[in-house]
Amino acid sequence: MLGIFIGLALLMFLAYRGYSIIWVAPLTALVVALFGGLELLPAYKDVYMTGFVGFTKSWFPVFMLGAIFGHLMDYTGAAKSIAKWLTNVIGAKRATLGVILGCAVLTYGGISLFVVVFAMYPLALELYREANISRKLIPGAIALGSFTFTMTAIPGTPQIQNLIPIDYFFTTPTAAPIMGITAALFMFGLGYAYLVWREKSYTAKGEVFVEPPAKANAAAIDPNRILPSPILSVLPLLTVLLTLNLLKWDIVVSLVAGIVLAMVISFKDYQGFTKTISAGAVGSMTAIINTSAAVGFGAVVKAVPGFETLTNFVMGIKGSPLISEAVAVNILAGATGSASGGMGIALAALGEKYYELALSTGISPEAFHRVASLASGGLDTLPHNGAVLTLLAITGMTHKESYIDIAVTSLVLPVLSSIPAIILASMGIY
Fold first, then answer.
1. What is the 3-state secondary structure (H, E, C) of the chain?
2. Whether the Cβ atoms of residue 336 and residue 376 lie closer than 8 Å to each other
3. For position 224, what pLDDT does the model report?
4. Cβ neighbours of residue 258 under 8 Å, at least 6 residues apart?
5. What is the pLDDT of residue 223?
6. CA–CA distance, 395 with 213 (Å, rounded to integer)
7. What local confidence, expressed as pLDDT, does residue 124 receive?
8. Domain tally for the chain?
9. How far apart are the first and last CA of the chain?
10. What stretches in the chain show pLDDT beneath 50?
11. Which residues have CB under 8 Å from 78's CB, separation 6+?
12. What pLDDT is attached to residue 220?
């Protein structure tokens, strides 16, 4: 077990230092293999790469099509049109609420979290400028709307963190709706209340809006751009959601339908479609490879003798097995700095055991699905998380200025949100 902990600690440290997980994951996996008595070359070429390739084979189409969909929605102006309409309806006085809801609608519609950050920042900047609110709060608001309840909690979300558990628990994207909605309200309500309190604290200290440096302001909205109708813009999002959850289409088919409709609605922009689709496809490669690298690390961890001891420890946590599942997924998501990667490792290793427990204990597999999804969105947003680094870079903020708000809204509250969900499950309410 010592090798597992050293490998995890080294993986977290190197990722925090900004090194790519593409080479860090196999390196730290070899540390685990060395301590576990495995031959290093077979551990890398066979065990590690089998886990890596297996995840890529299963999920590459979703990552690629999701990225293409998001890029098209951004290129055509549809994402900005929806976000701008929402923020206009809510008004500048509730700038933070407008940013949260704008991010939530786009994320729940299936747009990649990274694309949502790019699409929402210019709008958030305009709103906070008009409301004279400190820019330090923008990352926290975007994180709450994008990295939390619409990613893991609200039933039916097409985000990958809600889809991975389906293969292990034989469920649907709408699994455990009451648990999910309760956790979502918990995160949204407390997160928004926290940000309002922070806004008042900043204003009371005289900290108000300060113009960003030129680099961070480069994403400002082009006043001459004519955005498409928000009603037409929302149709591709609805197509993905409705075909996935009502018609029960495969997520790949649902995303293709959304992509086709997005292009049909904005056919006048056809000249840039090929370039945009290529950019989305290329952009998806980093995301899928990073996650697959983390899963490959988990495959080596699973292969060493110490893993059985670790499994017994996690499975031996007193109380509901949902608690041990939440702990396992959170720890691995934190270690890898990836919600999907951490959950992929945990469920690849323990998913079968948890499914057997669901059948033997009478706890619905849907409850295990929802808790796994919720837990994946907790400790993943430690400082070394890729989405956190991207968010801070785009908004022109530093960890010192804004990470505390990101941590509260997208780390602390998501971790705590599993508590009411597990309580409901223990009462047989899913």
1. CHHHHHHHHHHHHHHHCCCCHHHHHHHHHHHHHHHCCCCHHHHHHHHHHHHHHHHHHHHHHHHHHHHHHHHHHHHCCHHHHHHHHHHHHHCHHHHHHHHHHHHHHHHHCCCCHHHHHHHHHHHHHHHHHHHCCCHHHHHHHHHHHHCCHHHHCCCCCCCHHHHCCHHHHCCCCCCCHHHHHHHHHHHHHHHHHHHHHHHHHHHHCCCCCCCCCCCHHHHCCCCCCCCCCHHHHHHHHHHHHHHHHCCCCCHHHHHHHHHHHHHHHCHHHHHHHHHHHHHHHHHHHHHHHHHHHHHHHHHHHHHCCHHHHHHHHHHCCCCCHHHHHHHHHHHHHHHHCCHHHHHHHHHHHHHHHHHHHHHHHCCCHHHHHHHHHHHHCCHHHCCCCHHHHHHHHHHCCCHHHHHHHHHHHHHHHHHHHHHHHHHHHHCCCC
2. no
3. 65
4. 69, 110, 236, 237, 239, 240
5. 59
6. 10
7. 85
8. 1
9. 35
10. 215, 217-219
11. 72, 228, 232, 233, 234, 236, 262, 265, 266
12. 54
Q: Which residue segment(s) compose the domain that 293 sits in?
A: 2-426
pTM of this prediction? 0.81
* 52, 293 contact by CB (below 8 A): yes
Any residues with CB less than 8 A from the CB of 354 and at least 6 apart, and which? 168, 169, 321, 325, 347, 368, 372
